[in-house]
Amino acid sequence: MTMNRTVLTTAALLASVGSAYAGDEHRSKWDGAISVESETAQCSGQFVTSGPVGARFHPQITGSPDHSSFTRFGTGETVRVENDNNGQFNGTGTYELYSISAGQFTGGVSNNKTYTLTQSPANITTATVFVTLSGTLDNYADISGCTITVSGAFVKVDGDIPGY
């Protein structure tokens, strides 16, 4: 019985993350890949990826109430990083992290997590086709002093590209 509950709980959590994307047709979105290129010693070697993993990027477009976010889909793990404030991920700010890993959900409580990210172009609009994102996420996974360096590239999802 315990295993069935664990499987059902995990399935429900994965469905809830998936449902965020099943209903994202109202948001502009870019798909691509992102990698964790380095991490500080406080991270204990648990976040660097051997290469890029699939990712989806949702910048906040002017007038939208939805905060900017990106989600990376790793092996056995899905992580969403969401800007705590209005605006895009160009510069510095605070973020929240939501993660599903090994059947466990974590996140939703801020712990002085800050980002320093550069996105190109600096201001993404609905007409932007390609986006790059790079920089650091501090106090990653609520680990004090854990800083990861990320780099990603994204292309606007087919059907959202003007003229196609």
What does this protein look like?
The chain has one helix at residues 2-22; strands at 30-39, 53-58, 69-74, 77-83, 91-101, 104-107, 114-120, 130-138, 147-156. It is built from 1 helix and 9 strands, in the order αβββββββββ. The protein is mainly β. Helix content is 13%, strand content 43%. It has one domain.
Features:
164 residues; mainly beta; eight-stranded antiparallel beta barrel; 1 helix; 9 strands; 13% helix; disordered N terminus
Topology of this protein?
Elements: H1 2-22, E1 30-39, E2 53-58, E3 69-74, E4 77-83, E5 91-101, E6 104-107, E7 114-120, E8 130-138, E9 147-156
Antiparallel strand pairs: 1-2, 1-9, 2-3, 3-4, 4-5, 5-6, 5-7, 7-8, 8-9
Summarize the structure.
The protein has about 160 residues and is mainly beta. The protein is built from one helix and nine strands, in the order αβββββββββ.
Report the uncertain regions: 1-22
The number of domains is 1
From N to C, what is the helix and strand string? HEEEEEEEEE
> Helix share of residues?
10-25%
